[in-house]
Amino acid sequence: GAGVSQSPSNKVTEKGKDVELRCDPISGHTALYWYRQRLGQGLEFLIYFQGNSAPDKSGLPSDRFSAERTGESVSTLTIQRTQQEDSAVYLCASSLAQGPYNEQFFGPGTRLTVL
Amino acid sequence: QQPVQSPQAVILREGEDAVINCSSSKALYSVHWYRQKHGEAPVFLMILLKGGEQKGHEKISASFNEKKQQSSLYLTASQLSYSGTYFCGTWEDQGAQKLVFGQGTRLTINP
């Protein structure tokens, strides 16, 4: 079946502009996660959704970052007034349910470059 | 708290063995392992749970020492396809809400 998809695959924007990144999880997966990966670095947790709710927003780096999920499906990560330090690959993952027993399936990521 | 992986990088010849370690300063409920090839998404390898349960690929071998708060991934008779960056992710307790990933171990397999 279809895996996790993300769009766009690449996004180049100017400092100060807003961007929206989209994630389509595997159908039926109730948990959805967003991560940021800077060049050569590990995976930095941003936010997760159980259904359409985001119980833990502690990983969002600043109030410029927000995310939502609708229909227990597609999720959008929005970065307002982008800064150069926001440049990174943004990865989305989904799992059948939230919890330590469930593997996460990752999308191909969106590479964001802020000029 | 982010787990610490060691080594940071390792270079092997095809057929050699490698061990990648993941240590945490906190008690752990489970450890996840993923591999990421350059420019690709991370791919699930294995979950190790407190109490000894494991879930993952048959050809992957790993251990989880709950008392030492450590996990190790064993790659034997390495193949070229094993190259990539390996990440461990730790789940601190059953009620925790996220994986915390280590910085990764870059594995290069040469012919």
C-alpha Rg of chain A (nearest Å) = 13 Å
Decide which structural class fits the backbone of chain A: mainly beta
Uncertain runs of chain B with pLDDT below 50, 5 residues or more? Answer: none
Shape of chain A: globular
Total strands of chain B: 11
DSSP summary, beta strand count of chain A: 11
Q: Note the total helix count of chain B.
A: 0
Q: Secondary-structure element sequence of chain A? A: EEEEEEEEEEE
Proportion of residues in extended strands of chain A: over 45%
* SSE ordering of chain B: EEEEEEEEEEE
Broad structural category of chain B: mainly beta
Helix proportion of residues of chain B, in percent? under 10%
Mean pLDDT across all residues of chain A, rounded?
A: 94
Put simply, the count of helices of chain A is: 0
Name the overall outline of chain B. globular
Helix percent band of chain A: under 10%
Largest sheet of chain A: 7 strands, mixed
- Quaternary organisation: heterodimer
Task: Note poorly predicted spans of chain A.
Answer: none
| Distance separating the two termini of chain A | 37 Å
Largest sheet of chain B: 7 strands, mixed
Q: How would you describe the overall organization of this protein?
A:
The complex is a heterodimer of chains A (115) and B (111). With 115 residues, chain A is mainly β. Chain A is 0% helix and 49% strand. In chain A, the strands form two sheets. In chain A, strands 2, 4, 5, 6, 9, 10 and 11 form a seven-stranded mixed sheet that branches. In chain A, strands 1-3-8-7 form a four-stranded antiparallel sheet, with no helix packed on it. In chain B, 0% of the residues lie in helices and 52% in strands. Chain B is mainly β and 111 residues long. Chain B is built from no helices and eleven strands. Chain B starts with a strand and ends with a strand. The chains are: A mainly beta (115), B mainly beta (111). The A-B interface holds A 4, 33, 35, 41-45, 48, 55-56, 59, 91, 93, 98-101, 103-109 and B 2, 29-30, 32, 34, 40-44, 47, 49, 55-56, 87, 89, 91, 94, 96-104.
